[in-house]
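Box 4.2: Ligand-aware structure prediction
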Amino acid sequence: MATCRTCAASIKPFMSFGRMPIANGFLRPEQFKQEYFFELATAFCEACGTFQIVEQPDPEKMFHENYAFFTRTSAHMVTHFREYAEWVKAHYLSDVDPFVVEIGSNDGALLENFANAGIRHLGVEPSANVAAEARRHGVESLVSFFDAGAGERIRDQYGEADAILAANVMCHIPDLHGVAKGAELLLKPKGILVFEDPYLGAMIEKTSYDQIYDEHVFIFSLKSVQSIFGPYGFEVIDVLPQATHGGSMRYVLARRGARPVSPAVSQLASGEDAQGLGRAATYQDFRTRCEHSRDQLLDLLNRLKAEGKRVVGYGATSKSTTVMNYCGIGPQHIEFISDTTPIKQGKYTPGSHIPVKPYDEFKTHHPDYALLFAWNHKAEIMSKEAGFRSGGGKWIVFVPEVSIIEG
Ligand code: DWN
């Protein structure tokens, strides 16, 4: 019997997505034979309400000097982070000479907005290659995971922080107790801890099971965030739904009693009860919908193949690793995947071994169908690719349902 990563209660997987490789483990043919796999099974802890994967590969296997995801590949996300920074500055940075820390600062897309305003900041990022990119944008970056030791060292060297921020990072960290202790040590008495991550309620509603992969050890709800950080003296003082990554939630935490609590917190708690996020039956139903989505997508790709259509993938996302490996999609279905990230190009997708090609390949050889793996960037991509559709190309989407976007 497995135990919950946050409260240690017994948990039982409610489903398995099968044998999975590292989601961002893009590889060359000579590496196929040594490829690492683990079982991607999910569980919901009825004691503390935390949705989690049961087995997670060592963090060093996922976050290293060849990490393949760069935040700046989406212009929309760069704008989102500028607005996130403006919101923090306007609401929470009133002290003289504030100090802002970001956990998992990637290529500096969020922190550069503080750097450009002359605000003291520090990015803590375990993947050296993306941290180097952040430095090129003027963002001070420390190559490290964030835990209690890091929190203490940063405080001793730079002083207490006004704000600790994270975006699409907290759900990657298996030892959240270490993060909570680190925040407890580093934050000023009225300091805030803010993070946003894909929201469990949105994933359940949209059957966006591709949010589940090795890096995403948790998919949070408000209840789980309260259970995890409460014992360290923090309370959630605000929640702000975000449209990013297919439906995310921004959580604002402060030391208990240090700041007023927004009514949005109890409203979201009621919404989670109404959605049944605390009930095991909700996850059984999610499982059934995942299986249905898998069967439909595979049937569609098999049919298009039989009709001799050219199908390519758009966006070699981490999420697509779950989709392809769970559904059994391979080079027999998809000719290549177009992606703008140089480090992914010329390599093959994890497990499914489909070639990843530069965007020019898509542009110059429009296929009959493009499978939109980067569905969370749909608006940005649809406006960029209006020519594909007007030329007769069709999009295949699978969230919230498998369908074809015609004409
Ligand atoms: O949490 C995470 C999120 C924030 O980013 C990480 N675990 C890793 C990563 O997940 P992802 O790879 O699923 O993220 P995206 O943002 O959905 O990835 C988009 C991919 O599509 C990138 O490889 C870039 C590519 N892309 C493209 O080729 N053309 C993206 C856009 C917008 C485009 O126009």
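In the box above, the bound molecule is DWN. DSSP finds 14 helices and 19 strands in the chain.
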